[in-house]
Amino acid sequence: MAYDDELAARIRDVVAEHADSREIRMFGGVCWTVAGHMAVGVVDDDLMVHVGTDGVGSALDRGARRATMGERTMGGVVLVGSSELPDRASLDSWIGPAVERARAKPPKPPKPPRAAR
To answer: Which of 15, 18, 39, 67 has its CA 20 to 30 A from that of 9?
Structure first.
């Protein structure tokens, strides 16, 4: 599954300002973690944002839609269409709170490296 490379580059520019961020390929796209917690990502042409279960309602009011994987709705995660993100300020309005939410949690310890195959 492909994802929007241009949107990923825009997100990368914003998230890279945070020293404790990490880019990971997953869900057929790419996501960024902060302190080991998923904050944002790109799936298809959408920004995927972890808003928490308490933030879904307000995110939907702002124009986001629920994120699904197959038949399952992802709890606390929404999708924002790239057309809703015309500039840096609109992108920051989604990424900033997601980064702060991830940073507010205790850092996850790093996973041990996978055994060589």
So the answer is: 67
- Could you report the per-residue pLDDT of 38-96, keeping only the tens digit for each? 999 999 999 999 999 999 999 999 999 999 988 899 999 999 999 999 999 999 999 99
Which domains can be identified in the chain, with CATH numbers?
5-104 (3.30.1460.30)
DSSP per position, 4-69: -HHHHHHHHHHHTTSTTEEEEEETTEEEEEETTEEEEEEETTEEEEE--GGGHHHHHHTT-EEEEE
- Annotate 4-13 with b (16+ C-beta within 10 A) or e (fewer): beebbebbee
Structure pTM?
0.87
Contact in structure between 80 and 92 (CB atoms under 8 Å): no
